[in-house]
Amino acid sequence: MIGFPGNLDFEFSQLSGLLDIFVNNVGDPNGKEKSAVSAKAMECAVIEFIAGLTNADTKEVYGYVTAGGSEANLFGLDRGCETLPEAAIYCSTAAHYSIAKNARLMRRRLVTVDTDASGRIAPDALEKACRGAAGRGAVVVATIGTTMSGAVDDVDAIATAAAVAGPVYVHADAALGGLIVPFTEIAETWGFARPEVGSIAISMHKGLGMPVPCALAICRSDLVQQQVHGEYIGAADATLGCSRSGLAAILIWYALAAKGLAGLSENALRALATARYASRRLADLGLSPKLQPYSIVVVFDRPAESICRKYHLATEGTTAHLVTVPHVTPAIIDKLCEDIRRSTDNVER
Ligand SMILES: *Cc1c(COP(=O)(O)O)cnc(C)c1O
Predict the structure, then answer these.
(1) CA pair distance 175, 205, nearest whole angstrom
(2) Which atom of ligand 1 is nearest to the CA of 213?
(3) How far is the CA of 205 from the centre of ligand 1 (A)?
(4) Which atom of ligand 1 is nearest to the CA of 73?
(5) So what's the pLDDT on residue 230?
């Protein structure tokens, strides 16, 4: 399975005893609560550690473990829409479909903007779209690693372009790239380094490797001042859920504790190196691969259907892509290339 970005390189069987325990993180991770067994201490540690990779002041952020990237995007967009009640939501045509779904749920107007040749949101198109909204502000989604091409939107350019609408709130959808870019040359400048960025979504099952889907929603803590107080749970609650998976928080904590910063860095650098390797090998086969900077997604000419099926490649029209999450090794890329070579030999015969 190399076409979809779930890292399958993990091992949690040592924790199987947890399956006999109901671990419910109800309400805010940092709030006290009445639930008998929670993993909130681990959830807080996870948020603090990952926030440290986003150029946040870790004491000035709020965050929690969500059911997945889409919920983390909804949380961030909701914070943005509350901050700028008159603003529309802007994203590129390459943004994940959860942005459109979330805009619909919030009954907020969504404006979709073209991308440039490299798949990033086009600043001139964004500026043009924002020009008619002067004074209303703009809630803009910056995708840090688009689903189909891995392109990383330029947040500096976005913030400047959208400013014609007035105040700008940027939500960074880093579901795919959130555990990659902190280990690249843009490490110091991405995420909360820019004041316009209010929230970030980072998937955990994609980069880290998890047996259950989960992600992190992180925002600046001043964006959750009006917390809903859940009488019945006895805890303040700015999350979108009520009961949340304590198991997911424990699994993330365990994976982060086992890998440490060095392990995360190695994962990211290996994934980027494997993507470059795949790109070279596919170029040798004449399949015109495209690999964007800081990306682990390699887009190439769609091979035979049997190969797409065998490797679970994601396809779109005449192109296919693979994602070099840590379980995708150079040896697997070699096998793929060998299969592609054989299949074209067959066609020629
Ligand atoms: C995968 C992905 C999502 C959605 O994450 P889910 O966990 O599937 O909800 C959102 N945005 C981007 C850029 C993604 O790659």
Answers:
(1) 9
(2) 7
(3) 10
(4) 10
(5) 66
Query: Which tokens sit at 342?
Result: 């054989």
Kindly list the protein residues whose Cβ atom lies closer than 6 A to any atom of ligand 1.
68-70, 73, 96, 98, 143, 145, 147, 173, 175-176, 203, 213, 215
- Residue 31's pLDDT is 80
Within the chain, which residues score under 50 in pLDDT?
Answer: 349
Q: What is the pLDDT of residue 349?
A: 43
Ligand 1 pocket test target in 70, 75, 179, 297 with most atoms within 8 Å of CB: 70
Contacts made by residues 333-339, CB under 8 angstroms, sequence distance 24+: 333/274, 333/277, 333/278, 333/281, 334/281, 336/2, 336/307, 336/311, 337/281, 337/282, 337/284, 337/285, 339/307, 339/310, 339/311
